[in-house]
Amino acid sequence: MTLFLDKMRGTPEDLFGRKVIHLVAQMAYPAIVGFIAEKCGSEDANIHLRDIGSKISERLMRVYKPEKKKLTPLIKEFFVMLWEDKKIKVKVREKDHLKRPVKLRITDGNCGLCPKEEEIEPIEGLNFCVPISGFLETMLNELVKNNHPMGIKKIIGASIKFKVETIASRGSGSKNCIHEVEITY
Q1: How many CB atoms lie within 10 A of CB 50?
Q2: DSSP 3-state of 180
Q3: Which of 30, 36, 167, 173 could connect to 122 by a Cys-Cys bridge, CB 3.0–4.6 Å?
Q4: Strand 101-108 relative to strand 89-95: parallel, antiparallel, unpaired?
């Protein structure tokens, strides 16, 4: 993916607006997932696919500066930017004693990575959209590192860390893709 992005011409705005990239990704991605799962098994495929999402996020964060300042709108902004997906739901599942969110659940019924259920056979133990968890985790942690004003640096000396897991995927037979975000302060 890095070589592909390096050869692209135009501005970052051009990159985000290219629907062709989205279509190519949707067509090629199931074959890539199947190949990785066949070569190394579902467990290692989850790790590799998550790493792919993380690397894409690192690269993208060099050129993309998010507009939203609060956590939930920021997550929604990234889904819209990446997949033109405006139907995700972000819900706070738990708060700490200071009423800060410590667990979020992202529900996506229109995942840009997962094939439609009739298009592919599910792979046991593999969530097709696991790169999204790697992407989100890296993106959120990078924003903390770069002092993004999403309200997380209000506590002096706070060390905030995000952990994101994909717990269900349409590509593996679930009705929706579900990602859980854990926040430690």
Answers
A1: 22
A2: strand
A3: 173
A4: antiparallel
